Amino acid sequence: IDTPLFAGLNGDADVSFEFFPPKSEKMEKTLWDSVITLEPLAPRFVSVTYGAGGSTRERTHATVARIAKETRIPAAAHLTCVDASKAEIAQVAEAYWESGIRHIVALRGDPPAEGAKFVPHPEGYASAADLVAGLKEIAPFEISVAAYPETHPEANCPQSDLDNLKRKLDAGASRAITQFFFTAEAFFRFREEATKAGIDAELVPGILPVSNVAQTRKFAGMCGAEIPGWMNDLFEGLDDHPAARQLIAATVAAELCRKLYAGGVRQFHFYTLNRAELSYAICHLLGKRPEGKAEEKAA
Ligand code: FAD
């Protein structure tokens, strides 16, 4: 199946957006402008990341709490096992539950030092699957976990990574959000293998609109995602053309979403990097319209 251009996309896809906690007042404003821009698209949820080693603990909490208080978007908090005892994690999770946050993105996390190996805290959780089980004992959170279409770099093999994903879901997670990837085939292969491994939970592709290949390459190396050669070629010579880079970023990500949609995907998670415009444009191409507008048009 294929969908010609973007015709026939009727906005029935569900979308969610990921943000990171801002470090300065200026970044706070950028983030907040983005949240306000994306809110009318009625996302299923937005999530806020947790910095390495819990370094953003307070900022993540403050950002999630503000979104929950000032918007109608269900807010999810990322939480990792790095450098934290089970008791400390319980404290963070309980504080979320008390402030009305019901959705946690549960992750193992990576050590703060680049390239260092994850070593569990002596009284902490050893993996995301353990964290999911622990969180479920604290409160009946809705839990999302991470998945890797191109396999997590530390996994022994793709099958053991899938087994691990299944453990996370069996422990109580209800969906997996994937690491970013750049070919629809990578996702379809992964979906097929996951089904064979007995995984029937929602697999939500994580979409990263890339406007800076050099920066993305650095990050991709650490997280097991592959940047295809054609992507380098696309951005070559555009260092001094930020607007062209933005247009290309939207085109490439929208084309990926279109193929995923044609292959039956109806949930998309966008890594916004705290900027709304690319994600907004891609959602628009997917047929998403601000809440109320679609009904007005149909009336
Ligand atoms: P796990 O599921 O625990 O897996 C880690 C590795 O161990 C995998 O290779 C897995 O196959 C292997 N493994 C686990 N258990 C076993 C076992 N019993 N036997 C054999 N192998 C096993 N990082 C942050 O610091 N903050 C964030 O906010 C954040 N958000 C993210 C959001 C998404 C959607 C994604 C995809 C990633 C995010 N990350 C974040 C990155 C993530 O923390 C890293 O990728 C980390 O290295 C792995 O986390 P995990 O939850 O997938 O770990």
Helix % is: 40-55%
Q: Assembly type of the shown chains?
A: single chain
Gyration radius, in Å: 19 Å
Q: Which strand-content bin applies to the residues?
A: 5-15%
**What is the strand arrangement across the widest sheet?**
1-2-3-4-5-6-7-8
Largest sheet features = 8 strands, parallel, barrel
Through-space gap between termini: 31 Å
Number of discrete helical segments:
11
Chain-averaged pLDDT: 93
Succession of helices and strands: EHEHEHEHEHEHEHHHEHH
What's the β-strand tally?
8
Global shape: globular
- The residue ranges in which pLDDT falls below 50 over 5 or more consecutive positions are none
What report would you give on this structure?
By secondary structure, the protein is of the alpha/beta class. The chain has helices at 25-38, 57-70, 86-98, 128-138, 158-170, 184-196, 213-223, 229-235, 242-262, 277-285, 293-298; strands at residues 14-19, 45-48, 75-80, 103-107, 142-147, 175-180, 202-207, 267-271. It has an 8-stranded parallel β-barrel, surrounded by 5 helices. The structure holds flavin-adenine dinucleotide. Residues 49-50, 52, 78, 80, 105, 107-110, 127-129, 146, 152, 154-155, 160-161, 164, 168, 177, 179, 206, 223 line the site of flavin-adenine dinucleotide.
